[in-house]
Amino acid sequence: MSYKRLLIASSRPSGLSRISHCFLFQRNESTVSIKSEEDRRSPGSASKGPSHLYHPGSTPILEQTIGDLLKQAAYKWPDRECIVSLHQNVRLTFSEVLKRADKLAAGLKKLGLNQGDRIGLWGPNDVEWFLTFMATARAGLILVAINPAYRRDELVYALTTTNVKVLVCPESYRSQDYAQMVLQVKDRCPALEHCIVYSENRVAGTRHFSDIETLAGKAEVQAIAEQQGEISPYEGCNIQFTSGTTGKPKAALISHRSFVNNSRQCSERNELTGKHDKICLNVPFFHVFGLVMAEILCLHAGTTIVLEGPTFNPKNSLHAVAKEKCTVMYGTPTMWINIVDAQSRIGAPVESLSRGATGGSPASPELFKRIREFLKIDNMKSLYGLTETTAAIFQSMPGDSRELQETTVGHLSDHVEAMVVDEKCFPVPFGTAGELWTRGYTNMMKYWEDQENTAKTITKDGWVKTGDLFILHENGYGQIVGRLKDIVIRGGENIFPKEVEDFLESHPAVLEVHAFGVHDDVYGEELCACVRLQKGANITAEELKSYALGKIARFKIPKYIVFVNEFPRTTSGKIQKFKLKDDMEKQGAVPTAPQK
User: Fold this and answer.
1) Which of 185, 293, 513, 530 is a plausible cystine mate for 504, CB 3.0–4.6 Å?
2) Are the beta carbons of 284 and 148 closer than 8 angstroms?
3) Is the CB of residue 267 less than 8 Å from the CB of residue 414?
4) Which residues contact 254 (CB under 8 A, 6 or more apart)?
């Protein structure tokens, strides 16, 4: 297969070089591409050229570890607050974070941990989470980020899959007694040697977090700083479990190099490099969104991370913004929906906010409109990525038009290559939907001890298959159509749930919509939309269907509309459609597919 090399000029007036040195596949014109009405609604123009772009960017890749980055940040902003935890009443400067991280790193090594060993971290957004992550990076350990919502069997799965030697956790969180759960499952986790607990109490059978910070002597703490050169940027530093929206979570291993460069790109694209910004986080630490966009980004930009609570609460978030004068806010679309809903009732003084970022799942243009109306944020950034791609691979650019911000997931990231392919793995034309593949420094290293799933996800020539139905435009911007597995085929017609969700959310009574396919004896599949209404709103399913008549094709109007008060979601804020569908089937709201 031959290649064609093209130079594509920027289509924006910003003066930034957009795409250069694009390598495009020559494709067999007989291949089948996925087409839909969604293709024709894009902000970019379709081209006959194959959807294949590489964006080199204007700055070279950093060959640096997270530990190096922390040292630089402490030197640049020693007395600036790095993290503020309102629920713990704790404030730490960058120099204090480095000092405590090195003491903790030395203590962990004193316990017998060696470079490359895995240390589990199971808990919500607390200062101890942040310190432990920084300590493991400085010690050359691999941190295994564990979802705080995990129960006993899920915890065992995470610990045994990655052979965790040491687990750090709070004594309890919400209704779960973490310490006792760990002690109960320790026999099922042969590699687990120590459980370190942070709390006001001391729990028999565990070690206390503060004791580990003071375990090593002065020389051993100093040795941590001296050993930074022995840690390679190419080494793994973090294991992220995939969200588990379907099947068992897979353990993605990510390198220092990937995290350092992805977070730098995020700081630049989100315009966080010129002044002292304060970020109201909302998203969890254990997920790549929080890790990249806050925990590591702050080391590039000198931003202050503000934790409004151990987990997301929209009222606490608004109060945190008002109290700390936060300038930036992060959230998944669902979090933003809840924040806007709370602000419409509270009216908190949030004038300090100037920017926001949304990711984790697609956001509708209607949501952007509500954010502008109630939070007065006109500079909203979109980003798109996967755990397997170290977070962001498409992001909004500084100066993007409102249309680009609201209808795309941003521009291809620096040093990243993207290709959209059909079911035969040939590139489709620009502006046409297909599966997105990407490659570059952002690629995860592998799924831990899982060659089979690694080979299914990463091709032999280094492409990560995202599983997302995506449209790539010649100007470098992209749009999510939906997950490939979520396409609903009704009597031969393809329906993309996101398109229907976005449309229904434009109704003033509707707060949030999630749609999926259900069994139908005649058409094979029909569409079901679960709808959450605005507070105090009242509308029937038939009225909502009438609203859609003449505005979208009849076959896209959901046969089933079910009103719900909440949606099943992961701790990172993603909707679990498979659980939503199961709930609807159990309630008899939709048909159940016959057993084969």
Assistant:
1) 513
2) yes
3) no
4) 236, 237, 238, 239, 240, 288, 390, 444, 445
> Among candidates 217, 260, 177, 282, which has minimal Cα distance to 572?
282
**What are the residue ranges of helices labelled H in 121-208?**
127-139, 152-161, 178-185
Copy the structure tokens of residue 245. 């929206």
pTM: 0.81
Residues 484, 482: Cα–Cα separation, whole Å = 6
Interhelix angle 66-76/256-269, rounded to 10 degrees, is 40
Nearest in space to 259 (alpha carbons), one of 64, 524, 531, 55: 64
Contact 130, 295 (CB under 8 A): yes
Question: Exposed (0-12), middle (13-18) or buried (19+): which is 526, by Cβ within 10 Å?
Answer: buried
Beta-bridge partners for 516: 528
**335-365 pLDDT per residue, tens:** 998 999 999 999 999 999 999 999 887 788 8
Exposed e or buried b per residue across 119-141, where buried means at least 16 C-beta atoms within 10 angstroms of its C-beta: bbbbbbbbbbbbbbbbbbbbbbb
DSSP one-letter code for 429: B
Percentage of the chain modeled with pLDDT above 70: 90
Q: Which of 569, 514, 567 is nearest to 149 (CA)?
A: 569
Cα–Cα separations (whole angstroms), residue 244 to 123, 299, 454, 571, 572: 18, 30, 16, 10, 11
pLDDT at 263 over 70: yes
Given a contact cutoff of 8 angstroms between Cβ atoms, the answer to whether 534 and 510 are in contact is: yes
Closest among 132, 419, 134, 395 to 262, alpha carbons compared: 395
